[in-house]
Specification:
7 helices; 9-stranded mixed β-sheet; 30 strands; binds calcium ion
Length: 521
């Protein structure tokens, strides 16, 4: 793969910019108008799936002062449901709780409350508080699990391991922290043990926007595989797009390999003294197989796995072949499913899907996109970027959820990637084979996307068509400004459907599974 020297400053002259953009026909391109309504609407084409309540987390409204809570009306702010290798199920409430869900009825009990450990935690943003978690694949023996959370910089005695290039401690507004926890007894129903900080990254924009939103292990990796026991993070721009204040809207902080910004990191969480390997920015080891670990260039960060994402806040692995999918939230125009390749550059802020983002044009803006030259779009003139394999535009949604490869019990969804839109709460599907075929080096080839029609069963067992948003509003007894949809996947491949509004954990279920009593079968 090609590597590029990090871009240190945004050059202003048109000639230099032309080189930087790598576009031969810049004069033509500059005269073009921004693209509006870039894609046809996503439609329903006959996929109909039942959704059913699984459990509702305990309500945590009123726990925080309302000005410190991003959504005081939200029942509980669940964003991850995870089945771990020891057979147990966990879910988080970003207000600070990690729950164990036990037994056939998934009874929630608090496994860990992070609040006493992290007094500087911020809860007032969409991705804040206890943002994410995952358990080591060998948790049953080593007791290790990992969390990511956000903290205020003001009054915070901790020092970041990384501050964006060109900024200093006085510029820091928030910290984004990955923590390793070690349970004394991994089988216990409540956490008791120790923790240590792995990585603390600084934000310098006004809001805690696009922090690291994910920590996770590749569940398809077996002991002995390159990926086994390595922790991945989201690929997030730390608010350098629209995080607010004078330091945002800053393309010069992207497209560089001396920075964690926009990069999916892959780290070996072990201390270097334990692994015998190379220390990273924080107290962990750089995996020797990482793409920039052995490039001999001291200016590249060894923890970078792939880069050029705006907010690839969710990763997932296809259980069939280990394909790594990243769902990347776009700026004002395009939402993306990407297939992640080691060392790949996914374009942000120079690209938004297979368009050029306006921020890199003289007089252009972050909320604009422009057509790329035809020879780039059709792949005859290859550039240095990897392009998404499925996309939808902001006529159909505003922010993409995770996507999960589905091979479970619901026949209609088998062989598809299931994803959705956070704000609108719509569920989408794309064929896995078409997604993989679209990973072809040709920017404009993408897999078709269709919408899933949800239904519930009434007391007589009849289908009642519904939207996810309607379900959330009914459960909460109030209208919601956003559906706040998130998805998860169970150990047996089924799909969890959650909302940070109503705290309910639902599942997509097969048509013939356990209908209510009285329903004809
Ligand atoms: Ca393609």
């Amino acid at each position: 793969m090609r590597t590029r020297k990090p871009l240190v400053s945004l050059v202003a002259t048109a000639a230099a910019l032309a080189l930087w953009l790598g576009i031969q026909s810049l004069a033509e391109a500059q005269n073009a108008a921004p693209v509006t309504d870039p894609l046809p609407a996503v439609e329903k084409r006959g996929l109909e799936v039942e959704i059913r309540d699984l459990l509702r987390l305990p309500q945590t409204r009123g726990l925080l002062p309302s000005e410190e809570d991003t959504n005081p009306a939200g029942w509980a702010r669940v964003s991850f449901v995870r089945d771990i290798a020891d057979g147990r199920r966990f879910a988080n409430d970003s207000r600070g709780f990690l729950y164990l869900l036990s037994g056939a009825d998934n009874t929630p009990s608090v496994y860990l409350d992070i609040r006493p450990y992290f007094p500087h935690t911020i809860y007032s943003r969409l991705e804040s508080g206890l943002i994410g978690f995952d358990f080591h694949p060998d948790f049953a023996r080593n007791g290790l699990f990992y969390t990511v959370h956000g903290e205020r910089a003001e009054g915070n005695p901790a020092r970041p391991d990384f501050i964006p290039p060109g900024f200093g401690e006085d510029d820091v507004t928030y910290h984004n922290v990955i923590t390793e926890w070690r349970a004394n007894d991994p089988a216990s129903a409540t956490f008791e043990g120790t923790h240590r900080e792995l990585l603390r990254v600084a934000h310098v924009v006004q809001n805690l926007t696009h922090p690291m939103g994910f920590v996770g292990f590749d569940p398809t990796a077996e002991p002995g595989d390159e990926d086994y026991g390595l922790l991945y993070t989201s690929g997030s721009d730390l608010g350098f797009s629209n995080g607010g204040g004078p330091n945002a809207a800053n393309p010069g902080q992207t497209q560089r390999l001396d920075s964690v910004i926009t990069a999916i990191l892959r780290i070996d969480p072990r201390k270097p003294s334990e692994s015998g390997g190379t220390k990273g920015l924080g107290d962990y080891t750089i995996p020797a197989a990482n793409p920039f670990a052995g490039d001999g260039d001291p200016a590249t960060l060894g923890e970078i796995y792939a880069y050029g994402f705006r907010n690839a806040h969710r990763l997932s692995w296809d259980p069939a072949d280990g394909t790594l999918f990243a769902a990347d939230i776009g700026m004002s125009n395009i939402e993306e499913i990407n297939i992640v390749h080691k060392g790949g550059n996914y374009g942000w802020m120079r690209r938004e899907a297979y368009w050029e983002n306006g921020i890199v044009r003289p007089g252009g803006a972050l909320d604009q996109i422009f057509e790329l030259p035809a020879n780039v779009l059709d792949g005859t003139s290859e550039d240095e970027f990897i392009y998404p394999v499925a996309i939808y535009d902001h006529g159909d949604g505003q922010a993409i959820t995770a996507g999960f490869a589905y091979r479970g019990r619901i026949e209609a969804l088998r062989g598809k990637l299931i994803f959705g839109d956070i704000n609108r709460g719509r569920l989408f599907a794309a064929d896995l084979a078409a997604l993989k075929a679209a990973d072809d080096g040709i920017p404009r080839t993408v897999a078709p996307v269709e919408e899933i029609q949800l239904y519930v069963r009434d007391a007589s067992g009849n289908r009642v068509y519904t939207s996810f948003r309607e379900l959330v509003e009914k459960t909460n007894g109030a209208t919601a400004t956003r559906a706040d949809l998130q998805l998860g996947q169970s150990a047996d491949g089924e799909i969890f459907v959650t909302s940070r509004q109503d705290g309910m954990i639902r599942m997509l279920v097969a048509d013939d599974e356990g209908r209510p009593s009285g329903a004809g079968r």
